Structure formats: structure tokens, C-alpha cells
Amino acid sequence: MLKRYLAFALILSATAAFSQSIGDYKAGFKRQGNAISFSTTKGEIKLDFCTPEMFRLRSSWNHTFEKDEDLMVIRYDWPAVAATVVEKKDQFILTTGKIVVKLNKSPFRIDVYDLKGKLLSSEVNGATVKENSRVGVTKKLQADEHFFGFGERMDFMDRRFKKVTLNVGRGKGLPHAIGAYNILEANYCPVPFFMSTKGYGIFLHNSFATEWDMGSSNKNEYSFKAADGELDYYFIYGPTFPSILNSYTAVTGKSPLLPQFALGLHAGTYSGGTWGYEEKTSDQYVVELARKYRELGIPVDLLWLDSTWRLFGEIGGKGATSFEWRETFKNPKGMFDSIYAMNYKMVGLHLRPRFDNAKKLNLLDQAQAKGYTYPENGKPGEFVNFFDQKATQWWWDNGVMRVAKLGAKFLKTDEGSAFGALANESEKVGPTGKDAERLHNVFPVAYAKAPFLEFEKFNGFRGLNQTREGYSGIQRYPYIFAGDWPSEWQYFAPVIKAGLNIGISGVGSWAHCMGGFEHQTDPELYIRWVQFGMFSPIALVFGMDHPGYKEPWKYGEDALRNFKKYDLLRYRLFPYLYTTMHQQYATGMPMMRALVLNHQDDENVYEIGDQYLFGDNLMVAPVTTKGAITRSVYLPEGTWFNYWTNEKYDGKSYHHVVAPLDTIPLFVKAGSIIPMQPEMNYSGEKAVDVITLDVFPFGDSRYDLYEDDNLSSDYKTGKFATTRISSSLKVSTLVLKIEKPVGSFQPGRHQYMAKIHWNSKTAPKQVTENNAKLNVVNHAGKLDKIAGWFYDEKTRTLWIKSKGNNSTDINFQIN
């Protein structure tokens, strides 16, 4: 017994020897620009102000710091921040125009306050520690403090009292039983960043696997640790979530604007044969698929060919890319040409990050001979070394250009998680060792970055890339999709939650497979999932269920009718969606917004994971229960209207609403102005000569419509225009003002059609435009050709068609 006790004591002693805090403060500190360094008894602390609201904190136990990297963080150079440093007996006090940082000398501890003295964050004494290779910090968990973020999580919204491990992957174990389909493990796009309802956020700038204990082990503390590397994190004061998100994406990058047509439908195909049916694939199937969408009047703009367009190689099998076409594709260039002749904007191809040899091409052999693959066990490996610019360029020139010159305009970069981990379709784990662990999480970012930038140059317009995995920074190379979730009701609501969590984490351009990915889907589930999909940042339809493939005409007449209804509506919403996508680029606010983003003080919204704001004005509440034709919704503070019925609701309360199978519950904020374009079968089919303004009058409100050339990157240098639209409802009058566009971009000419949801029991008596009376017509259809107004008593809708266009201000007054 004594021997066992002594052995246990020795183990504890050995463990303690390798676990140490950063120590106590030693005399002296250095200040250089925004950076302030403090020596401690065990190492060094460096605090670097980025803005008055944000600082970067780094801890080193050997007085050296890692070099800057450019996959997670793209900005290290910040303007000078006015900060005072006052030394007292037991602490330093650092003050900016926004926060006060107090550094306790012994034991070393960092506390942060706002300027009114409110505590934002406080560390536990001796909290900054290094345990063998692991680094971490422990902070106090405040009463009523809740946490949101951490990437594309499908399990929870609020992480208070929960643990989570962040490491890119689809889950362990049997991939089709407890791994890929385990919503607790799914980790396609982890992001080491959270926001606290106390008004701050933390971004751990470390690419190793991380562990976050947000009060699970001790309800008075939370901690975060990285498996290795440097303890390097950014502290961001808001105090609002939108402000925190704006600062976080200033560090890691904003989501760029995609070409406007990318707001249209994205359709994927296995070309007639998924795995096990490869012999059924053909280029003709793809052309006929593209033609059928057009013949049925289903709007679509992008198409991509998944795995089975290419030959699976000799070494990597399904998990690698040979760049050699399958024999059943007789004329790939003719296929691309035929599809583009039908006014599709982009056709893309799926691939994986490992080279392989096929029948005619031996790109794996060539790349290994040149040293362009990442080493595995000291030998040339199979993964393209996307961390080496020369290797990346060789991959582009000798691999991707083989298909780009035929007509491919983007890629689906799949299986980025296989670098240093078990791949989907193989027993291979790829590179191993400490370097592979360090690069595993950022490999998907490097992988997506390469074709995004190269295709942007090659195509001559904004980049686009579809990818499944990501990490901090992936938002710069959009878009990301939710992964291979089966067509089962049990996964529908978790996928919605994944979209909300990834948006809170700074990644806004996100998609999912409408109807699910695997298995034949229940037509009712398909209908409900499509409704959600059309109100998602990217609308994507794709499946591997043979022979259905989630093609909308294969799930019954109701499913086809539902698909067309919401697809056509989405295309009408382009002006609203495009404005929202620009907000995402400018501020970091995602298109699809968890309610907590705008209501962080309302505890009712903390676990709402199946309802969201889509842009500023639309509240979407998908039905996720089989057989349900009603659902309960929570409407936050304010006044709301049912989009379909115009029924009025008070906010900060729950409501039970009717939702027939063909109807997704949809609400608008009172005062909303929603711009819409004419119905189209594809982007640019006709000129946007009339913009309809869907108006829900309430008090004073406004909307700023964004316009640019829809394609180039000139928006980054300010070449765009905004049109301010305002509504003012008084007791006896409604004034709707549309100002002429402001900015360096000149939009095309368009008139306006106001569709005003009239809540007064009294019909409007007179309508003027710029003080001149407009003629009343006896049918709304007449307004397609002439200016005037019509009031529909049955629907209580007022239609007004302007005489003027956007070359001048327009002022409607309704009495």
C-alpha cells in the first residue's frame, strides 16, 4: 500500500514539475507603440492594443513569440491607440478610451473593466499556465454570464456550464453511425472564438486542438486550453454582439461579396451515378439536368459536378483526385459550352486535396518527384502542400487548369479535414506528428484559399469556392456548407442550429443540402427543408440518394410546386439579399442571424436554435416537426407582422401560428421596407426596371438599398451606391420617401412599385408623388404599364407605381 502511495505521489510530483503558471511580475516593463511587455518570474507577457476596445495578449515561458501567420489572422498592423499606463504598488492600470485593464503583479492576473467600472472579465489567481505542451488560462464565470460562438456547432447555442473540444473533423468512430451523424461530435468548422453576454469576446489565436470548459467542472470558472503552441488570445470589448463581431472579423477578415448571381440556386449533381453507380454517369446527363431546370421554370444559376466526374485513382481511390475524366464523359468541353448557352453563370467541379495517378495522368508521381506534396513519415506524401506557394501554383497549373480551360469556374474543395486525420473514404490518416497537428485545423483554410484566389484571377470577377471544412479565417474564401447530413427529421433542426452558430462565429456565407444529403427523403421533409434552404445565405440543392439526388421533380407535385414557389421568391428578394450580403462584408454581421445577436440581454432567446433573422427585417421560423401545421414562435422586443397575412403581434412574447405544408412562418419587423426585383428564371434574365418596395408602415423607419456592378471587386474601393428609403406613419398620413442614389456607382434606371400593407381600417383617399396627384386605377395589374395607385380592400394592400425613377428623389404621400 505504501509503495502504491509513493508511486502515486511521484506521478503527482512529476506532473506538477511540468505544470507552471506564468509567475509573478518582475521589475520593469517595456513599451513600444501599442505593445507593452512585462517580465515575470517564469516568462513574459505582451499586451498589444489593436483598438481602444481590443487588445492581444500573449504569454511566453521562454521570452520568444511565434511569427505572424496569415491563415487565421490577416491584420497585425493597427493605428496608434492612446493608452495610459500607471504603475501602483500591486498593479498596473492601463486605460484607453473604452476599457481599463488592471494587471495584478503577484500573482500575475489580468482584469478588464469598462470606463464606468463594470467588471467585464477577471482571471483566477495564477490562471495562465503551461502544462507540459498545453497552454491555457482560467477566468471567473460571472453570475448570469452566457457564451455563444465556437463555430458550426449542432448541439447547443448557449455554452454556459458546457464543455467543447474544437478540432476539425466529422466525428470519430463509425462514420455512418456515431461519427458523422453524431451532432455532439460534428466539428466541420470549429472556430476558437466566443462572445459573452457581459459584453466581451475572446478569440484564441492558436491552430492546435483546443478545449473549452465554460463552467462545466466548476460553476464559478471557465477555461480554455490549446494542445500546444502559444497562449495568444484577443480580448474584444463590445459591449454589443454586433460590435464584437465587427472587431473579430477585422482581425480574421470579412466575408467578401460574392457575385450577385451566387445568391441564386446552386445545384449539385453526381452526373447520373453516385458511388457504386459510376458507370451510369455521363456528360449528357448533366446537360439534360441543366435543361430540365430551365424547361420547368426553376430558377438556377450555378451547377457543379460532384465526385464521379473523374476517375478514382490507383492509390488514393475515392479520397484523392486524378484530374482525369471518367470514360463516360465523352465531350467535357461541349458539356460546359452547352450549359453556359442556357445562361448558367458558373459550372464547377468537386475534388479532394490529395493527388493521385489514373490511366493517362500521373500527377501524384510528378508532384512527389518535385517535392510538391506534404511529407508523410519522412517520405513524399499525397496531399498537395497548400502551405507552399510553389506547390500550390503547380497544382493549379498542372491540375486545375486542365478543367478550367474547358469551362470549370469554381471548385468544391472537399475533405479538408483529412490532413492529419482519418479521411472519409479511406483508412489513411495523411501526415502525422506535431507539425501536422499544428496545421490540421488551418489546412482547410489554405486549401480553400488557393482556388478562390486563382479562379478570381482566371475568371476575371469575384471569387467563389465551396468547401465543407473550415476554421478561423475561412469566411474570406466562401462559401462553406454544413456537411453530409442524412435526410432524416432528426437532423433537420440541428442543421439550422449549425447555421446560427457559425454565423455568430464570423462565418456568414453558409449553405446546407436542402432535403438532406444521404438517403431517400420523406417528401414532407423535403418540402420543409427546401423552405428553410431558400431563406439561407446560400441556397443549395444536392444529394447522393440514387436515383433521386434531391432533384425537385422527383419528390412529388407538391414538392415541385413548393420548390418553385420559394425559389422564385428568393430571386425576387435579390435586392434585399444583396444589401444584406454587403452588410455582412462591411460589419461582419451574418445574413442568417441568431436572435441573440440583436437581443443579448433577452434570456428568452439564448437557446432558440430554430428561428432567426434573415437580414435586418425578416424573421424565419422553419417547421421541423413531421406532420405539424402549426408551430410556436418567440418574437423579440418590438412590433411584428405576419408576412403572409399581415396580422400584427406584440414582441417579447410567444405566439402559436398556423403553418400549412406550403407555408413557412415568416414575420417582419414593424416599419420594414423590403426591396424586391421582377421574377426571373436566372440572374440577369431581364432588366431590373422596377424595384418593388414591400412596406409594413409603423412609426418612422428607413432602409438603405445597396447597389453596385454585381460582379467586380470595385466595391472594395468604394464604387457602389446606396438609396435611402424612409417611411413615416402619422395619424392621418403616410410619407414614403425614396432618395436618389448616393455614391460613385451609377445604378441602372428603375421606377418603383410600393406595395404597402395598409393597417388602417380607413381606405386611402389620395396619393401624391412629389406633391402631384397620382391617378387611381381599377386593377393592380394596370400598374405594370402606367403610374398610379390601387387599393385592394380584400387584402388591405395599397399599390403605388411611380412616375419618376431613381434619377431624382421621389416622395409619396398617402392621406
In short:
With 815 residues, the chain is α+β, with helices and mostly antiparallel strands.
Characterise the protein shown here.
There is one protein chain. α7 crosses α9 and α11 packs parallel to α12. A hairpin with a 3-residue loop joins β7 and β8. The protein contains 13 helices and 47 strands. The protein is 20% helix and 27% strand. The protein has 815 residues and is an alpha+beta fold. It is globular, with a radius of gyration of 28 Å.
Structural descriptors:
about 800 residues, eight-stranded antiparallel sheet, 47 strands, alpha+beta, seven-stranded antiparallel sheet
Q: Could you estimate the helical fraction of the residues in percent?
A: 10-25%
- With helices defined by DSSP (H or I, 4 residues minimum), what is the helix count? 13
Which stretches are low in confidence, meaning pLDDT under 50 for 5 or more residues running? 1-18
- Secondary structure class reads alpha+beta
C-alpha-based Rg, rounded: 28 Å
The rounded distance between the terminal residues' Cα atoms is 94 Å
- What is the approximate shape? globular
Count every beta strand, where a strand is a DSSP E run of 2 or more residues.
47
